[in-house]
Amino acid sequence: MSDSRFFESEARISGIKDPWIVFDEIHKRNKWRDILKGTYDVFADEFRFLITGSARLDLFRKAGDSLVGRYNLFNMMPLNIREVAGNPLLGSFLSIQEEREMIKVFDDLISEPMPDENAQAFNSLLKLGPFPEPFLRQNERFCRKWHMDYIGLLVRDDLRDISRVVELDKIEHLVNLLPKRITSPLSMANLANELEVAHTTIKQWLELLKRLYLIFPVKPWSKKVSRGLKKEKKWYFLDWYYASEEAARLENMVATCLYRSCKVLSDQGYGDFQLKYIRTLDKREIDFVICRNNKPIVAIEVKKSDTSVSKQLVNREKWLPDYSTIGVQLVNQRDILKKIDNHTWVMSVERMLGLLE
User: Fold this and answer.
1) Looking at the structure, do residues 38 and 153 belong to the same domain, yes or no?
2) DSSP secondary structure string, 164-212?
3) Cβ 217 vs Cβ 223: under 8 Å
């Protein structure tokens, strides 16, 4: 507090070229934007800066940004299979812009021998969730208690800090209602009736929980973006541990890993990547579609054990006639890898998730 340049001497004496200076939780300091702006203006050519913090950092950043043009924002996401298994990934097939080349690279990668660590990493993550503290402890009792405390902390402390919401009990009740609804489009009207609040209030609460990185939406895909926005979204937990039912947890885990990959690729400048789903008027559905600049490139179905490829996935050109896409059906069975016509695959879930950023 007495010297905003406290790091300078130690950094220069270290003899390291372009040393990294890390500020953690600086947004809790008064006038933190002005401190960072002044520090950057003085040392930008000599030092590199990494600013880390909770979701509140992003919220405060948006409220009158004095740092425009001075930084890149990256989303810090939960663990994935590749990180846990310790397998570095040199680029992603999703970042390849040319469709035919992307499909060819995917076919080559998916056919390579899968590291033995992938299955073990998948089982541990599915059981304990992707957040570092409970995962690294590898203790079910600790994991259960940590997740119970985390919800209370998020709603009672973090949510209160960023909003003027006073009905915290109802928001906590809303969180408890979501796990049984995550695999289907969420009806805000039904939730509004159950919680005895307005439809717009439910919408506001969901957005607040999204900003706190508790949940995230998956929108329906439509060739015309404006039409898709009018349909109901699916909502998933960033930490799939909260989905207790087996099939729902598996789908939520896949959703989180795909969502993370879309965020990472977007942050790295490869395009506007979004995770969506397809649902027709007769309620036929493809669970997930990865889009780049609203252009579908991969369609994914998630099954607990069914290795018979779904008709919706095989016939996806019916809804995506103008796009060349990869089709993948993921199953929670080991040692599954089958190729169907039209760039369509059936495979063990950890094989696909192990290729994601």
Assistant:
1) no
2) ----HHHHHHHHHHGGGGTTS---HHHHHHHHTS-HHHHHHHHHHHHHT
3) no
Q: Which two tokens stand for residue 166?
A: 């006073």
Question: Model pTM?
Answer: 0.90
Distance CA 319, CA 329 (A): 17
Could you report the per-residue pLDDT of 294-336, keeping only the tens digit for each?
999 999 999 999 999 999 999 998 888 889 999 999 999 999 9
What the block records as the tokens of 190 is: 């039904």
Tokens 């059936």 -> residue: 346
Residue range(s) defining the domain that contains residue 15: 8-62
- Domain count along the chain: 2
pLDDT digits (tens, 9 = 90+) for 275-285: 999 987 777 89
Contact assessment for residue 344 and residue 76, using Cβ atoms and an 8 Å cutoff: no
DSSP state of 93: G
Q: In 3-state terms, the chain is what percent helix, strand and coil (to 5)?
A: 45, 15, 35
* Token pair for 277: 């789903």
Confirm if 328 and 300 have CB atoms less than 8 A apart: yes
pLDDT, one tens digit per residue, over 102-155 is 999 999 999 999 988 999 999 999 999 999 999 999 999 999 999 999 998 888
pLDDT of the residue at 74: 87
